[in-house]
């Protein structure tokens, strides 16, 4: 195992941060590294908003489900899929041609681009001794949050990311066995149940140790409970209203 793989495998979500700033140089290096992530056809269809103003972070925390660490971290990054920039800068080159900027394919491209850049930023941040946690809660009240950040049509917040100096050392959450996710030369239906059953036992031990025996729910049960909960069903209407996936 080399240093890069060791760093990646040591990832854990940080929800408590020291009262220390993220320097402008660190932030610029992290975003510059993120820009080196792969991007479909070099469209680079994402933007990042760095929220550092305490009043703004307080509002964002409320909209994201009152998650205190959004307020407490020195920098809160909002990673956005952005087709607006592409639409604006190509308009003068279209010469009467129809634009497919609002296609479902381009929506996927922008979302994937944002995710690839964000994860590259996460690795870069951790290499500098910083910690991060992703915040899907920015989609809880996404219309209000988008208005607060002045996001134009064809831009939507995919997720947030708290960034700062860690003030905790949480354990590393176990992942599914490689056998559960790696298929060779085609999808193998037979590789589903057995690895997940083993992972259920691993997660039961992990949760029991983490909670002092108060919780030992198997992963598959946690996922079943999640699928039975109607989460953020407003997203389709919101995205349609923002101009995405019209074609």
TrEMBL record:
What SUPFAM superfamilies is this protein classified in?
FMN-dependent nitroreductase-like (SSF55469)
| Pfam families in UniProt | Nitroreductase
Domain Nitroreductase, by residue range, is: 8-164
Alphabetically sorted, this entry's keywords are: Flavoprotein, FMN, NADP, Oxidoreductase
Q: Where is the signal peptide?
A: none
Q: Could you say which protein family the record assigns here?
A: Belongs to the flavin oxidoreductase frp family.
NCBIfam families recorded: PRK10765.1
- Protein name stated in the entry: NADPH-dependent oxidoreductase
Organism, by scientific name, is: Paenibacillus cineris
């Amino acid at each position: 195992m080399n240093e890069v793989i060791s760093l990646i495998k040591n990832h854990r979500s940080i929800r408590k941060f020291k009262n220390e700033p993220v320097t402008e140089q660190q932030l610029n290096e992290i975003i510059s590294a993120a820009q080196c992530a792969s991007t479909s056809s070099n469209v680079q269809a994402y933007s990042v908003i760095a929220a550092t103003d305490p009043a703004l972070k307080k509002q964002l925390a409320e909209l994201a489900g009152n998650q205190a660490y959004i307020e407490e971290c020195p920098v809160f990054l909002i990673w956005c899929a952005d087709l607006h920039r592409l639409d604006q800068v190509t308009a003068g080159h279209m010469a009467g041609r129809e634009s497919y900027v609002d296609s479902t394919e381009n929506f996927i491209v922008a979302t994937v681009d944002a995710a690839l850049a964000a994860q590259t930023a996460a690795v870069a941040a951790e290499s500098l001794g910083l910690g991060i946690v992703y915040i899907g809660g920015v989609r809880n009240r996404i219309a209000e949050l988008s208005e607060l950040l002045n996001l134009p049509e064809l831009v939507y917040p995919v997720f947030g990311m708290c960034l700062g100096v860690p003030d905790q050392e949480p354990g590393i959450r176990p992942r599914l066995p490689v056998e559960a996710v790696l298929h060779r030369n085609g999808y193998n239906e037979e590789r589903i149940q057995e690895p997940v059953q083993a992972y259920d036992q691993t997660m039961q031990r992990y949760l029991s140790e983490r909670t002092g025996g108060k919780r030992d729910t198997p992963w598959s049960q946690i996922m079943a409970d999640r699928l039975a909960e109607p989460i953020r069903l407003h997203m389709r209407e919101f995205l349609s209203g923002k101009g995405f996936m019209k074609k």
